[in-house]
UniProtKB/TrEMBL annotation:
Lineage: Bacteria, Pseudomonadati, Pseudomonadota, Betaproteobacteria, Burkholderiales
Class of enzymatic activity (EC top level): transferase
CDD domains per record: GGDEF
Location of the GGDEF domain: 252-380
NCBIfam families: GGDEF
Record-given protein name: diguanylate cyclase
Keywords: Membrane, Transmembrane, Transmembrane helix
TM stretches of this protein: 6-26, 38-56, 68-85, 97-115, 121-141, 148-170, 190-210
Cross-referenced PANTHER family: DIGUANYLATE CYCLASE DGCM-RELATED, REGULATORY COMPONENTS OF SENSORY TRANSDUCTION SYSTEM
PROSITE patterns per record: GGDEF (PS50887)
Amino acid sequence: MLGIDAHSFIIISAAFGLLCAFLFFAVRVGFPKNIGGLAQWGWGCLLMVVGAVGFTTRGQLPVLFSSYLPNLFIPAGVIFMHYSLSLFGGLASSKRLLALLCIAALGLAWVTFVVDDYRGRVIIVSGLLTVCFAACGMTIYRYRVRRFPEWFTCSIYAATACVMGTRFLSVLLYDGTLTLENDTSAIHDIYFTSFPFSLVAMSLGFLMMANRELQSRLESQALHDPMSGAYRRDALLEMLQREIAASRRHGRPMSILMMDLDNFKAINDTHGHLVGDKVIVHFAAEATQLLRTQDVIGRFGGEEFVVLLPQTDLHAALATAERICSRIAKSNPTELPFYTVSIGAASLDRSDLDTLSLLDAADKALYAAKRAGKNRVVAA
């Protein structure tokens, strides 16, 4: 076997699996709890380690521990990986693989304890592994966002499934009596020796996926207000500056809305700051529902919000503002005090307007709405 015996590769597989399990259990401690699947991946690696160690006891322990259970622990470990990937991606976990494992366990029991058929065992295990690895790859393919770590891991699963499938077909179509002693084909060598390296590559890919998700969440926390979910002031100003430049470059309209919750200080003084915080959260959620995907809402400070409306003239911006104003006045939940919002709208209608000038125009329109009686929209 490529200059190294089977026993040595089994030991290498166990060592790699143990290293991967330790790595993911350690990573689990430092990662946020809402990034799921890390511990399950570690348990999957441990199951494969137990299976690999079991294979080394052939001739020393009963066949139950040296063949039957190890042949089940390996695919069970891959099923744990599939469960881990489902948790990580926020997908519903299917029980079909567990049902398939139970069916395979019955078949494996027959070809292990009743007829002692080595070829039958290889067909069952390689076929089961083909399905399990392919299912893992398909799970990653179903992710809403797929970047390099996802494509890398998915490709490793696909390649491994191809190796397992080739092994399955080669044994299924083998013409003759296949035993452990005469099973020395090239595909057997590839099947056997590629497994530990595939395990490491899969674990590396999943770790890259988890690290990228953590990075995305940290970046999101840096850009967004933790209470309302709207963009922070500095992030909003940077986006506004870029949009103004793009609008001038392409000659397209752009507008902003400056919004301020009416009598918010009275709400805080009367009901307390916790209730005031709930009002801000409610307003941000309601306003966001009325915006397009390309629109951006940011918390400018306290109870003041700014909405960036790309490719929107003043007439359309006023229509959006009116919808927000009307929605807030009519949608107050019973557990919150009644509140309204005043809105000032401004459009990029002059070439000399910069970020501060546009904000100032919208701010003046906002305070005109306040002076006119609140709960209304005024254009700059």
